[in-house]
Design a protein that fits this description.
7 strands, 213 residues, alpha/beta, 7-stranded mixed β-sheet, 8 helices
Length: 213
């Protein structure tokens, strides 16, 4: 059941389009875990962060049904591009149709396959990275992406509060929770970056690569 807080946030969030509504509807119809969709509040934040930062080259790790990539692409300047990495090819038609409806399909390059291998084939510098994929590999994604990120660029990591499990008195020992807790601790200690975690949805960590590195 949707919370009163979420209803309030949605009613005061400006980002809305027929294309994004279509992607959300298709996500609910065609997938078993529609709650994985970023949603309108976080989507609006992603679009704004792209616009504010002036990002022109973005990596997205974990595209799911294409909603978050569409939101970020809406914030790109002319000529900007997103390299969207997704392992599940069963949703490719949904992603491409949603991007076409949103008018951003020319700004997104879809890479189907293992994200780690794809990251090793990319060349920087990138202005922004958005990570919303296998939680057990967040640390590996981070180590691969940081060298690709320009000085002052942002890496955004989704789901970093993980339903409160990472800050529980006793942190659960399941692989995903353990990996996220270790990722959060590692980033907080990394002198190469500055970071802040926002309690949006299931936690969104903003990581900025320091200049002079």
């Amino acid at each position: 059941m949707e919370s009163s807080l979420n209803r309030y946030l949605l009613s005061h969030c400006s980002l809305r389009s027929e294309a994004l509504d279509w992607i959300e509807k298709m996500t609910n119809i065609r997938t078993n875990y529609p709650q994985m969709l970023s949603g309108r509040v976080q989507g609006n934040l992603l679009k704004m962060l792209v616009e504010i930062s002036g990002a022109e080259r973005i990596i997205e790790i974990g595209s799911f049904t294409g909603y978050s990539a569409a939101c970020m692409a809406m914030g790109l300047p002319e000529g900007g591009v997103i390299d969207a990495l997704e392992i599940n090819d069963e949703l490719e038609d949904l992603m491409r149709e949603g991007w076409r409806r949103a008018g951003v399909d020319k700004s997104i390059r879809l890479h189907i396959g293992d994200a780690v291998q794809t990251l090793k084939s990319l060349s920087g510098p990138y202005d922004m990275v958005y990570v919303d994929a296998n939680k057990r590999q967040y640390t590996e994604y981070y180590q691969l992406c940081l060298p690709l990120l320009r000085e002052g660029g942002f890496l955004l990591a989704d789901d970093t509060l993980w339903d409160g499990k990472v800050y529980a008195d006793t942190v659960p020992s399941d692989p995903q929770t353990k990996a996220l807790a270790e990722f959060n601790d590692m980033v907080a200690r990394d002198p190469r970056v500055e970071t802040v975690t926002l309690p949006i949805r299931d936690g969104l960590t903003l990581i900025r690569k320091r200049k002079g590195l």
